[in-house]
Amino acid sequence: xxxxxxxxxxxxxxxxxxxxxxxxxxxxxxxxxxxxxxxxxxxxxxxxxxxxxxxxxxxxxxxxxxxxxxxxxxxxxxxxxxxxxxxxxxxxxxxxxxxxxxxxxxxxxxxxxxxxxxxxxxxxxxxxxxxxxxxxxxxxxxxxxxxxxxxxxxxxxxxxxxxxxxxxxxxxxxxxxxxxxxxxxxxxxxxxxxxxxxxxxxxxxxxxxxxxxxxxxxxxxxxxxxxxxxxxxxxxxxxxxxxxxxxxxxxxxxxxxxxxxxxxxxxxxxxxxxxxxxxxxxxxxxxxxxxxxxxxxxxxxxxxxxxxxxxxxxxxxxxxxxxxxxxxxxxxxxxxxxxxxxxxxxxxxxxxxxxxxxxxxxxxxxxxxxxxxxxxxxxxxxxxxxxxxxxxxxxxxxxxxxxxxxxxxxxxxxxxxxxxxxxxx
Length: 425
What we know:
This protein is of the alpha/beta class. It folds into two domains: 5-77 and 215-424, Zn peptidases (Aminopeptidase, 3-Layer(aba) Sandwich); 79-198, Roll (Aminopeptidase i, Domain 2). The chain is 25% helix and 30% strand. The protein is built from nine helices and 22 strands. The chain has helices at residues 5-10, 15-28, 174-182, 217-232, 262-273, 278-287, 333-346, 365-372, 396-411, and strands at 32-33, 45-50, 54-59, 67-74, 79-90, 93-101, 114-124, 127-134, 164-166, 189-198, 203-205, 211-214, 238-245, 289-293, 296-297, 320-322, 351-353, 376-381, 383-385, 392-395, 413-417, 420-424. A nine-stranded mixed beta sheet has the order 1-2-3-13-4-14-18-16-17, with helices on both faces. α4 crosses α9 and α7 (333-346) crosses α9. The chain is globular and about 70 Å long. It starts with a helix and ends with a strand.
C-alpha cells in the first residue's frame, strides 16, 4: 500500500477510524459501498459496513465463483471508554470518567500521553448522522503514584484509572472541546462512543530496523497486511472477502461482531445476486476457505520460559499457524496443509504456535465466525511482545510475510472432493 504500517495505525485511533481508513483505501481502488437489498454484479468490487465499526469487502470474479477466499481480522483494541457522564472532580483536578474495554495490561497505560477519539451521533433534522472525532493530540494522562507512597502494587480500577484532564475545575466538558475541534455544535450531539487512546507514534527500530513498536499492533498489523494482500492479489476463481470485525476484544457477541448472523446472511445474499441458486450457493460455501488473522505471543527475550518448549515463534520468523487441542483455534491438519501450500506459493516463511500446557490461552475470530459460516479455517498471526500493552512490539519483516500469504490466499480457489480439498493457483 502507499502508506506504511505505522502511518496506517496512526490514522486508526478507534475501530470507527479503522473502518473509515480501510473504506477510503478501498474506494481509491474502485470499490463501491454495498447496502442491504443491493444486487452485486460479477466482476464488481464492494464493501459493506456495520455500525461504522465493522467492514466486509468483497470482489467477485467475472464468472460464478468456485469458492470464497476469506481473511478475517479485528479493528478494535483494549482501551478506556468514556462513560455518559464524562467529567469527574477529584483531588482538586478534573478527571475523565472511564471504564475498561477489553483485557488490557493496565500498568502500561500509566504516564502515557492519551488522546480521545471515536464517533459522535449528530441530529440534523430527521437524520442522525455519524461523524468521527479525534483530539489529534494528548489531552489527558493517567498519572502513577510515586513508588515511595504506594503500599499496594496492583492498580485498583475503581481508584487509579481515571485520566487527569484539567487543573481548572471550571474546565468545559471534554465533549465541548472535541466538538470545537471538529466544528460541531455540541447541542446537536445526541450520542457518542468515545475512547481514550495512546497518542505515541509508532516507530521502526533495532540494529537493523527489524522491529516495529506501536499502539494497537494487535490487531492492526494483521488488518494492514490482509488489506494489502487483498488489494495486490491477482483475480482468480474465488470471490475474495476481507473482514475487519469489531468487538473481538470483548467476545464478538454484538451485531457488528463475528458472533452474529450478518456475515452468513451477507455472503449468501451476495452469492444469490451473482446468479448462484441455493444448491450452488451451498457448494460454493462448502468449497471455501478462511484465514483468521490475529497476532500471537512471540518468544520473549527475558521470559522465554513463558513459551512452549517447541512451538516458539520468534519475531521476524514469519507468521505462525496457531494450534489448540480444545479448538480455541481452528487450525487442524487440513487447514494447516492449505496454509503451508499458500506459504510455499507466496515464498513466505511460516512458524507454528501453541500455548505452554500450563498457561491459559485466548481465542479469536476463527471459531466464532465459522460457527455461523461453516468453512475450512486456520488461525494465524504475527508473533509479538507485550500483547494488550499500551505500546506493543512485533517484527518489522513479518508484516510483508503476512501480506504475501494473504495475496496467495486471495489469488487461490478451492474445491472439495470428498474429504479432500483441491487448491488451485
